[in-house]
Design brief:
This protein has about 200 residues and is of the alpha+beta class. It folds into two domains: about 120 residues, no CATH class; about 40 residues, no CATH class. The strands form two sheets. It has a three-stranded antiparallel sheet, sandwiched between helices. The longest helix has about 60 residues. The N and C termini lie far apart (about 65 Å).
């Protein structure tokens, strides 16, 4: 009888130890996997911002379409100004320096892809949320009027944490979304805004 009780107690101790280790490892594993996904999504969002900035420099506004943006990266080019020479900026501006021959300005066309994405061989993936089974980032573009009545071109691109963290521990994902919503006011990763001019910063920056 004593041996049976000792065996049962031993099993109970083993089970409790297993549950304790699992409960400790659970949030650690979640945080590691969540961070990996978030970092991958941030890299892609920053690439989208670079592409949108280049697109606006060529066409004067932002685009709401990923097909348009990806086509621009793959097939388009933009001009880069090259300035040679020096001048004293305390004595004259750039235009005066050009007129006096101290500075020469030339421009050359460069491929958008070669210039901004030479290390990326699969531009088509830019629109997809990492780890999210071909889910797309949400992207919008348009014009807003500031408080001083100035028309400003804006865009936003985002992914909700609910999409980015799908498949991870449900309770920990729920807790994470609530925490981030309270701290940043938005339940996901986002660049830009359709409601205000934000200089296209990310809400994690």
């Amino acid at each position: 009888m004593k041996t049976l009780i000792q065996t049962i107690l031993g099993l109970v101790i083993i089970i409790l130890a297993f549950l304790l280790v699992r409960n400790i490892a659970r949030p650690i594993r979640f945080n590691r996997e969540a961070e990996e996904r978030i970092n991958a999504a941030i890299v892609r969002l920053v690439d989208i911002r670079r592409a949108q900035t280049a697109y606006k420099s060529v066409y004067g506004d932002f685009t709401a379409g990923f097909d348009t943006l990806i086509g621009f990266i793959e097939n388009d080019s933009f001009e880069i100004r090259k300035i040679t020479g020096t001048y004293d900026s305390d004595e004259m501006n750039e235009q005066q320096a050009i007129g006096s021959g101290l500075v020469n300005v030339s421009s050359t066309k460069v491929s958008v892809k070669d210039s901004l994405f030479s290390d990326n061989n699969n531009i088509e993936m830019l629109k997809y949320v990492p780890y999210a089974d071909r889910e797309l980032f949400v992207m919008n573009a348009g014009t807003i009027e500031t408080g001083s009545k100035v028309q400003v071109d804006v865009f936003e691109v985002y992914v909700l944490y609910e999409t980015l963290l799908q498949g991870l521990d449900r309770q920990l994902t729920y807790n994470y979304i609530n925490e981030k919503s309270m701290s940043s006011g938005f339940p996901g990763l986002k660049i830009g805004s359709m409601n205000e001019a934000t200089n296209n910063t990310g809400n994690w920056e």
